[in-house]
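#random but structural
TW: two for the price of one
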Amino acid sequence: MLTSPGWRGPISQHWTLLAFTSGLVLGGILTAALVWVAGGLVRPLLGQAGAAALVAASLVLLAREMGVLRFKLPERASQIPQSVFALGPVQSSFRFGFGLGTGARTHMTASLPYLALVGVAVLAEQAPVALLAGMGFGLGRAILAWTLALSPRSVGWEEDLARHSRLLRVLLAASAAAASLILAWG
């Protein structure tokens, strides 16, 4: 969690979660915008093949989640600097969230964020689509923190999630593969 369970400071945990979520969303939007701009160099060359590229990427990433293919995805597995956490609860939460929201300062356990990047790069013709994808990434990452904070049963919750994590990742990857097929040929 973003604060210690016994925190009795002047700022509620919900404010730190709002700051964290805002950072996640803004980080996701920034990354999606950069990928969309870079994708502008590729989209015109791909044309209809962009949908096929998304389908191929979704099937490869589904196979990775199922354990059929084993390969590392690019990531920066470094820690967020300690200096970020010395700024006070709200600003620290925002900056921590921003770093996680960019996807460039964290370990990714699932393949789906990479599929979203491919989708934005090869299919997002309009900027709002890319920005919504970035916002969705940030909000998706915030769900875990909010669910844990609002859960009446905080003990054992993370163990339950860990136990079902692989199944959830496979189901989400399969759903994304199906969605990309529908987008490509729908």
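TW: number two ↓
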Amino acid sequence: MKKITLIIGLIAFFLTEMARSFYRPYIYQNELFDYYIADTIGNSLGTVTAIFMILTLAGKGSKKDYHFIGILVLGLLAYEGMNLLGTTPFDWRDAVATIIFGILSWIVYAYLLRKTYSNDPPLKDAPPPF
């Protein structure tokens, strides 16, 4: 389980950095409208990176790990909300991207937990499911 969460976290990290380095400047330079993907790439894939890297480091491979996901999403939203107090403008799209990709990470992790712990062999004489 740790290997899978590490791989997901690293892939999300590298995709985030590639998008920030190449995709975002290209979109801004050519003044293209990409439905705000370039603007929210840090919050979307960055949320996935944060969640799966923390799960790699501190996760136990149990349902208690959902607390980490919830706390991380709330923390990232609070961090974004702190822009209301400072000079950096608050972008509601970043907050929405954090929520959406937090939920997607939750779903992916639930799927991973289900696949990891559902290795029970089927009953030999079990009737068909339908």
